[in-house]
Here is the input.
Amino acid sequence: MEQNVISIEDQKNLQGGLKLTDIEDNERNVSEDFEISVGQKLIEYLKSTNTTIILPQINFEENRIIFPILKEIGEDPSNISVLDKLTTPAVSILQKETYEVLPVCPEHPENLLTTTRICCSECSSINVKKLYLVEHKVCGFIADTEIFGQKTIKEIVACPKCEKNITNPKRELRSLGSWFLCSDCGEKFDNISNKLFCRKFNHDFDINSAEYLSVPYYSVNNSSSADVDTITLLTKLSKAIESFGFSSQKFVKVIGRSGVPHSVSIHGKKEDKQVSVFFRSSDKQLPDVDVNSIIAECADLPESFNILICIPSISSEAKAMARYTGTSIITGKEYDEVFSQLEKLVDEHINK
Here is the structure.
């Protein structure tokens, strides 16, 4: 059966953590400059502490999911948007992965505290117990653990038939099997039923009807050379575009002609003019397959002047493909050089 997985970034803040209900967009009412500043502090902290994994902390009693590392840099530990920004293709400093998938009550999805209950397969009562069939090797007496006066084999201290003390249950007793007994209806059965229990609102629900909360963790992307300078560069590039009279946004989705959304590092708009900046960084020349996939995205944005910034370089074949599709390419090892090229492109091609 298909599971309904709720992403944690779709949830609201609850007591300093992330809530399951009232699904909304992850963007917070904070300025982009603030988010960039937090991103810089986080990256510097990761470097100074040699941290490579960012783990969440789940408080089931208080329904809170936080990232303590954010508190270490003086920020809201539930501000997952900062971490998500660093996973975008434009920055690619962090990789987002699944830490845990939690089943939650479909009627009360804000409640994280869900446990499992075992039930009688006949009457659904939870008043069931597990019994073990035991043989006393010395006298051959066979009975269940209740007859021996205990719940488990290792607790048995004497045989009810021969009345001999049992000092080593592991050697003196033999387990012949086990089953379940319902104390309400008296039914004996081998397989129990499982139900999930919403502890806050005191009711059962079937596991197939559960919602599922995907809780992420983040790891440092070692294949990326992006760092604090990358964040700073994108901020400067955005402000440069704004200096030509454009309104700009960083890390946004732009819908292409095909109806497919594309992740754009910077998108600027002024009246009927648009500019889309795609940014990729690596420690060596970017592979053609990566560059060509971005060029294909640019081709789906015909109304926009598209710029692809590749640090440090791309192949001559990729450059030829970009020229064919009308995509402007900026390459370079130094960020100041990249910044100057962008200003020149904007001034020459779209600031007319």
Q: What stands out?
A: The chain has eight helices and 20 strands. The domain at 228-350 is CATH 3.40.1350.10 (Trna Endonuclease; Chain: A, domain 1).
